[in-house]
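Reading a protein record of the kind used here takes only a little practice. Think of the row as the fold of the chain written in a discrete alphabet. A record is reproduced here so that you can trace the correspondence yourselves:
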Amino acid sequence: MRYLLSHRAGLAALADPGTGADIANTPRRRRAEIPAANGHATALSPAQLYGAYAGRAAVIGAEQVDRARQGQGRCLDLVLGAALGRESEFGLGVIPSGTDGEFGPDPRAFGFDGYGGSFGMCDPEAHLSMGYTMNVMGHHVVNDPRKTGLIDAVYRAL
């Protein structure tokens, strides 16, 4: 029953005013107020945001970074659970990389995925931040293969 409720919540949250590459850039979708689901930015914006977490701006201290990336406990998210088919964990507005390595090999790295393949991430210990947007949307809610490929390549180059 809980999965069914999360499935309905996920559909309701993600399907109005529609999803998919053909709908994402329509005026109706861009005007919609969908918290955590319809931000629009260039790659520079998330790279700069996560750059502040990585220590390249004096606006966020190390204590605040540690607090933001601290996981709040794994659970079945009522919106993303249906799409992911598994439990997830969130920090304060970010997703910790954790043991799954969603944002690189350091479990203390963190970031956030955008539907279609975009993402932003930070690894303060490696002094690394990245932002990626694409001109062709994919169909992954999280862990788009382009994201994982880029993150793997950057860590191999460090």
